[in-house]
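General statements about sequence and structure are easier to judge against a single worked case. For one protein, we set the task of working out the structure tokens from the amino acid sequence alone. The sequence in question and its structure tokens are set out directly beneath this paragraph.
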Amino acid sequence: MVKKIITANTEDDSMVKKIVAANTEDDSMVKKIIAANTEDDSMVKKKQGFLSWSGTLSHEIALHIKKGIIDPLFGDYIESFISSEIGVGSPFVSEIFKKLIKSDFGIVCITAENIEKPWVSFECGGLIKNMEKENLYVVLVDVSFEMLGRLNPPLSKVQAVNLDKGGIINLIKKISAGILQIESVMYEIKIHEGWDKNEKDFADIIQRHKPAPNNYYKQIKYMNAIDDSNLSIPSVFSIYKKNLFFAGLNHSFILDLTISEQKDNFLSMVDTLLTDSSKKVKILISDIWDEYVISSYKSMIQKMSRSFETDNLNKSLINKDSEHYIENVITKNRGEESLRKIKEYKQLEIRKIKIISDTFVFVDPKSDNGICYFSLFTSPGGRSRPVFTFNKKDDNSIFNIYYNFIEEGWHNMSDPVWPI
């Protein structure tokens, strides 16, 4: 539009180049000329850009490209969108579809974490019209062109750039020339001038998301065993303020309500919910009813001289006629009204996932004082189990790595167990 308006009023569009060359420090002259030749510069409709991401690393990179590069450079001509901007309570999927349909170009941030994820393919499918116009761009964060071609062939046909100065300048050239149809010289200069900060910001983001074992193992505190001051059940129920999140196969046995001690522990947890309706407990257990999970587990525990039975858990979680069924236990011991409140306020949720994982306990993970305890699956059981621990205040990066991973499993890879 810029090019068309100036062409209509100057006989040729060479003025654009002259203006850009003369105003390398300020591109406001472009806007002024447009305004001078139209009654209102709002006639210049902004182009719509869609930034696609999946996973925390990809999201942070996409967010920085938007807020640190696209918006400052092209804010007058481009309205960029990233899905994390959708407000709470808004219809997420329908908003995504609207933005995909209206988009004039797309930028997809690809990482080793998301290169094969369905969500990336879904959004890219919505952006396919832009690919046909050569207005879809892939930013390779920590993967190579070769890896892209091997693991996600459809995206290998898209214009891809590396996350470095040359790649970002190339991306800016394509946007300014291909989308806005204006000279890119001024914008390239701005990228050069501000690259040191952008490079540091990108490096910091990538460093924060490197695999935990390679970067954080020396920082994780080690406790010799579970005791009444940390992970022991029911002691942990007196520690948390608002949220408890249990994850891992061993937490299946918190729910074995056929055993008197386990039932008492479970009821202690229920009591904390009844005293404060804002408290919530989530339990994500391995799917012990899945043949693959159970066969894998049995092959491992045989080497550790353990036994494993599912009958008791069937009575606690599956068989509604059993006296040990979770709802029957709550009703008998705390009353029907207590069960109604817990279900109404969604204070207790149990889900299953088809993996065998280490044992995690997240205490108030959404607060600044969040704590995580975890124990390796292959470690001894009971109070002799060795435990690693870290907190959100001192080790925010590693806390978020584990919590976000488990949280993603909860939302995207699990099935409900209770309530049904």
About this structure: The CA atoms of residues 57 and 336 lie 45 Å apart. The first strand starts at residue 47 and ends at 52.
